[in-house]
Amino acid sequence: MSTPSLIRGYEVVIGLETHAQLSTQSKIFSGSSTAFGAAPNTQASAVDLALPGTLPVMNRGAVERAIRFGLAVGAKVAPLSIFARKNYFYPDLPKGYQISQYEIPVVQGGSLSFFVGDAEKTVRLTRAHLEEDAGKSLHEDYHGLTGIDLNRAGTPLLEIVTEPDMRSAAEAVEYAKALHALVVWLGICDGNMQEGSFRCDANVSVRKPGGPLGTRREIKNLNSFRFLQQAIDAEVQWQIDQLEDGLAVQQATVLFNPDSGETRAMRTKEDAHDYRYFPDPDLPPLVIEPAWVERVKAEMPELPRVMAERFQREDGLPAYDASMMTQSLAFAGFYEAAKRAGANPKLAANWLMGEVSRRLNAEGRGIEASPVGADTLAALIRRISDGTVSNNGARQVFDALWTGEGRDVDALIEAKGLKQMNDSGALEAIIDEVLAANAKSVEEYRAGKEKAFNALVGQVMKASKGKANPAQANELLKKKLD
């Protein structure tokens, strides 16, 4: 295991708690809609408000999504789990408690692997439990007042908790991205971070290498990967400053201000006993029969890690490339469609990780919105493979395809004069002329100077106006010189 990198002589220790809003049409304990964007308080029923005489009823779809997640991460799906009341007062929590799970969660253990650069990292999961969301306090539209919108109250969440296995903000971000990709892949969460469907709390502490764990502070409600990175970096620097000044770090819940780039303490951090958890008397234990788990398993899509292993085995892709091809179902589908259309798998992966991803990221698009479809990309890759066009020429064709200058690969190659010279007779004639005109370079090459060969290749490409097939030019030139 590699030694973690240190920041100012300190080791960073991070664990994440992620709230994934489950993709059910109704709330976890009532029939109210979970649709986003409704007028305030129009989707809060008597059950969500805990009015006298109302009782919660478990949403089967939420449980099924939890089972699906547990199977995907190799966790234990508990045959029996219990709901508890987590007691605290907050204006947007109408019951005065939140229904959650504490001692016996529905999903126990598991792990998630991902890449940080080209190094693979595995983070252990502690648990994933079902719970209801609270409402929302609105501050922006009220001068000196706070509005309460209870539309979110009772929305089903799966809270996914890691062990403190991450050692940098970069690792935390890559874990969060991998988890986000997985829950969307499984269809259990839409992953919309702007709407609050996927948000992270980061528990951060620092310590001297080999020392005991430091005091952690929890950064709440981070709803973008960029904010997650910035918040952890800011918090780490703040904690180190405290310790270097001889001050103690107090356990606290903090908020991140993206405008100032700083974390700010909101309240001292509660421990579990402060919430006075106790089993909810209105909800019986949740029993999950083995047959239900088997049925969910049979309906599961091919998992990203399984698909990545298949791409390594069948297509010869390196592990990193295979993981990139399975970053989302849509991306994997695009790659497989390009293969079916005749693209060389490794070239298809290279183009998708390179030029395609670069353009998509620059324009803020997903692969679904790529102006160049899988069949068109495959047609271009086939022309690279058969030597019709060089890599440089292919990039020019790709640019024309992307900007809508044309749709037909062969027509664009022809119109732009990018077709490579594959006629060995014509190429030999050019090489003979280059050798005759560059006697000094020929002499230097034969004297052992390898750079002279590259100079001759350059002259051949220049004389052919870039149309010579580089591999063929190299081969013929070597034959003439040896």
Explain this structure:
The protein has 15 helices and 17 strands. It has helices at 60-72, 169-186, 225-244, 290-299, 304-315, 319-325, 329-340, 345-363, 374-385, 391-402, 409-415, 424-437, 439-446, 450-463, 470-481; strands at 11-21, 76-77, 80-81, 84-87, 97-100, 107-108, 111-116, 119-132, 136-138, 147-149, 156-162, 198-207, 217-222, 252-257, 262-268, 278-279, 286-287. Helix 13 (439-446) runs antiparallel to helix 14 and helix 14 packs across helix 15. It has 482 residues and is of the alpha+beta class. It folds into three domains: 11-294, no CATH class; 302-415, no CATH class; 424-481, Arc Repressor Mutant, subunit A. The strands form four sheets. Strands 1, 2, 6, 7, 8, 11, 12, 13, 14 and 15 form a ten-stranded mixed sheet that branches.
Largest sheet: 10 strands, mixed
Name the overall outline: elongated
The assigned structural class equals alpha+beta
Number of strands: 17
